[in-house]
Amino acid sequence: MVKKIALEEHFISPGLIDYWRPTMTEVPAPVTAQLFKQLSDFGESRLESMDRAGIVKAALSISGPGVQAERDGATATRKAAEANDFLAGQIQKKPDRYAGFAHIAVQQPKAAADELERCVRDLKFCGAMINGHTHGQYLDDQALYPFWERAEALGATVYIHPTDPVSPAPVLDGVPALRRATWEWGFETGSHALRLVFSGLFDRFPKAKLALGHMGETLPYLLWRFDSRAKLYNVKLAKPPSQYIKDNIVVTVSGVFAAEPLRCAVDALGRDRVMFAADYPFEDAVEAGHWMDSAAIEESLRADVAYNNAQKFFGL
Ligand code: MN
């Protein structure tokens, strides 16, 4: 079994349960109950699953949407800080096994920058995870430049996690099985990342670092097309879009445990830009770990994706 760092492993803190529950309305009650138990546990069951998967360290993040569903900015800022303190307390009990991503309320950009700095400097978190848009505001919004400025200065990675779109696309009407993680979230989250690229955010903040799950939300597969169409539409960027995706974005394999897209992501972005994640408890960490151990790739690449890349990139 190859040793692994897992980068998209979720938990829930007491103050954020009420934001999470509404996302589970279509899931059978016993499944929700089981997920809640797993999200709330930092002891035996989580560690046992990690051990069986060969995960030596898990970077924990809130199970969304968290405070991004909060309408009141001050409440969101306060609850995000509480969640970060809660996570820091859990990490302190098992510092060799757990790391953390900050939960950030972007409703108040200056406070968001300050909280990111507190989490990275004082709580030693390895970046922030933001659950997509916040009431329709995406991360390329100019109001959030102070947040990006600070993230860049801190060298803190911002991981965009999927969320539901502002309004569901009509093409998915009547086919509920295509909503959310099947297809809808990939388009929503890939589009979010492309907004950052096409808006010129990475020209303004060239050292800003972004992470995407789910093998890059299809972006690695489409680099050529982005460049070709950017030329046609005369997009004003210093570099072709694909170059920002290679330079500013890293991806994890969360929820896509297949060798073909892994090889595509590695070929498209570089062998140091793809990292392991299970997406616990929404995916089976043991299955993810077993796949990582047995995927048809060469051994040095396996070790890099499973452990070395995350260790270097996030300083874990
Ligand atoms: Mn996830």
The portion of residues assigned to helices is 40-55%
CATH class of one domain: Alpha Beta
Characterize the overall form: globular
Identify every distinct bound molecule in the structure, by name, code or SMILES: manganese (II) ion
Largest sheet properties: 6 strands, parallel
List segments where confidence is low: pLDDT < 50 over at least 5 consecutive residues. Answer: none
Number of helices, counting only DSSP H or I runs of 4 residues or more = 14
So, the CATH homologous superfamily of one domain?
Metal-dependent hydrolases
Overall description:
With 316 residues, the chain is of the alpha/beta class. It has a domain at 1-64 and 253-316: Metal-dependent hydrolases (TIM Barrel, Alpha-Beta Barrel). Helices cover 47% and strands 12% of the residues. Strands 4-5-6-7-8-9 form a six-stranded parallel beta sheet. The chain has a three-stranded parallel beta sheet with strand order 1-2-3, sandwiched between helices. The protein is globular, with a radius of gyration of 18 Å. Residues 8, 10, 161, 254, 279, 282 line the site of manganese (II) ion (MN).
